[in-house]
Structures are given as structure tokens and as C-alpha cells.
Amino acid sequence: MAKHGKKYLEAAKLIDSEATYEPLEAVELVKKAAVAKFDETVEVAVRLGVDPRKQDQAVRGVVVLPHGTGKTQRVLVFAKGEKAKEAEAAGADFVGDQDMINKIQQGWFEFDVCVATPDMMSEVGKLGRLLGGKGLMPNPKAGTVTFDVSKAVQEIKAGKIEYRLDKAGQIHAPIGKASFDAAKLNENLKALLDALNRAKPAAAKGVYLKGIAVSSTMGPSARVNTAAYK
User: Fold this and answer.
1) For residue 182, what is the enclosing H or E element?
2) Which of 160, 193, 217, 224 is most exposed, with the fewest beta carbons within 10 Å of its own?
3) What whole-number distance in Å separates Cα of residue 14 and Cα of residue 229?
4) What pLDDT is attached to residue 1?
5) What pTM does this model have?
């Protein structure tokens, strides 16, 4: 059993682990319980009523959080010519083609998200092991393989996140920072849950949203009333 420090144990007293809270109350409690010296990330864990082993029950997608994540994403775009110029104009941090591929092959990973134009994927695909292992491989389902690089970069900078079902049938995603107003965290949470509801597989039967919990990086979690999102 994990041992917790004095600060955590004091913060845990603020939240009843057996209770379920309305969304706004849950994020308010999580904010109060975030007592670390840094600005903790507020995260949500959602347990879905799907079978992660079945292809037709996979849940994956993207959503732009209305108030962003509080983290500045460093965006790398693989593109040539006019598309490279578009990416630079949109605010991409790094833009290139073979030169960027060479840098990554040499161990450079000073970026958070990759975007690639479709015509670059034959070359970018050679980085499969390097990028895939870090969850950085551009993917059409995530909107990161596209000719509309300007829109992709702007959305990422505005707070677009990707969600994906894990092997335990759960979705884990950031919804902001503990320094955010509770109302903004609540709106980000609603945006994510609305997106998950829209992504419900046709093959999923029974209760879809089985459990929702919010927590900060170092703090205890608060269970959220799932009825708020049905």
C-alpha cells in the first residue's frame, strides 16, 4: 500500500472518498486539495462501459478544450514548400522535412506534438519506432496528418487534446491547471465528456459512463456524479 505524506493526508480530509459530487463541486474540492509547490495539472479519469479488446468498441478522438490545458505545446510540423510557410505563419515551433527527420534519428525530442502533411508520411513513417514509442506519431484520427497545417497548429496551441481508451477501459486526460478558475475547469471537463458521449461506439451496450474522477497531480481524487453528463 502506498504511503502518503502529511500534506496529502491533510488534503485528503477535504474529500469524502465514498461520496460522489456534482462536477463543479468536485473541481472546487480538487483545487483546494492541490497543495504542491508547483501548479498541478488537473486530470480526469473516465471508466467506460466498453470492451477495450474489441475493435468495434474502441474510443479515440480529439477535443479542443475551451480554456486550454495551461501548458504551452511545442509543435513540430513535417512539411515542404508552401505548407511549411503556412505552418510557420500559424505559430509552429519547428518546421522542416528531412532535416527534422535526421535530428530525431539523432535523438532530438524537444517537442510535444507532431503534425505532418500526407505527402510527408512515407518519410515520417520511418520514425515509427522512435515516435510511436513516445506517443508522438502523427495520426489522421487525431487530426495530425493533414494538409490544413494552419488549422492543426492553431487548434493544438488553443488547447486541443487527444483521448484514447487504455487497456483497462479508461480514458485519462488533462483538463487544466489547479490555478484555473473552477468554472473554467468545469467547462473543460464538460467539453471532454461531451466529446466522449459523441464518440460512443454503436457496439457499446449498457451503461457507457461508468465512473468519473478528477484529481490533481499530487492530490486525492473526487468522484463525479455521472448523471450530469447523460
Assistant:
1) helix 182-198
2) 217
3) 24
4) 43
5) 0.84
How long a stretch of residues is the chain?
Answer: 230
Q: Which of 100, 103, 109 is nearest to 133 (CA)?
A: 109
pLDDT averaged per 10 residues, the chain (length 230): 68 86 97 93 97 93 94 95 97 97 96 96 95 92 94 94 93 97 98 96 94 95 93
Phi, psi of 7 (to 5 degrees): -60, -45
Q: Locate all alpha helices (DSSP H) within 148-208, ordered by sequence.
A: 149-158, 182-198
Nearest-angstrom CA–CA distance, 131 and 114: 9
What is the spatial distance between Cα 177 and Cα 192, in angstroms, rounded to a whole number? Answer: 15
| Residue 189, helix vs strand vs coil | helix
> What is the per-residue pLDDT across 64-99, written as a single tens digit (0 to 9) for each?
999 999 988 999 999 999 999 999 999 999 999 999
Cell numbers 504542491 correspond to what residue? 36
According to DSSP, the β-strands at 209-216 and 160-164 are: unpaired
Residue 129: CB atoms within 10 A of its CB come to 9
What is each CA distance from 151 to 121, 154, 226, in whole angstroms?
18, 5, 33
Residue 145's DSSP bridge partners are 116
DSSP 145: B
> What are the angstrom distances between the C-alpha of 96 and each of 44, 76, 82, 159?
35, 8, 12, 23
At 165, give phi and psi (nearest 5°): -65, 130
Q: Which residues have a Cβ under 8 Å from the Cβ of 190 and sit 6 or more positions away? A: 23, 229
Per-residue cell: 201:
461506439
